[in-house]
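Much of our argument rests on the idea that a fold can be written as discrete symbols. This step matters because it turns folding into a mapping between discrete strings. The record that follows shows the chain in one-letter code together with its fold in token form.
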Amino acid sequence: MSDTDIKPRPGTKPRTQRPKLHKVILVNDDFTPREFVVKVLMGEFRIAEAQAHKVMMTAHQKGSCVVSVYPQDVAETKAARATEAGQQKGYPLLFTTEPEE
């Protein structure tokens, strides 16, 4: 077999990277009613009532709680809409995002 008999490898296809994921975090405050927080979690994040209550209580006890993980643009949109829902009612409800490690 000579050097000219070797077939070149087919071109490699570039891999599409998955979008970076971000966590949506509920930050505790002592003014927003618990029922309202649960309602926002159920409405914006499509969480069942029992799970929404657990998330709310975890944030209340620990200071914050991860609600869910999404691609960055989705996470930022959901956090902004949920925070805005609290602002519209005059509550200091706050959702933030941060990159998932």
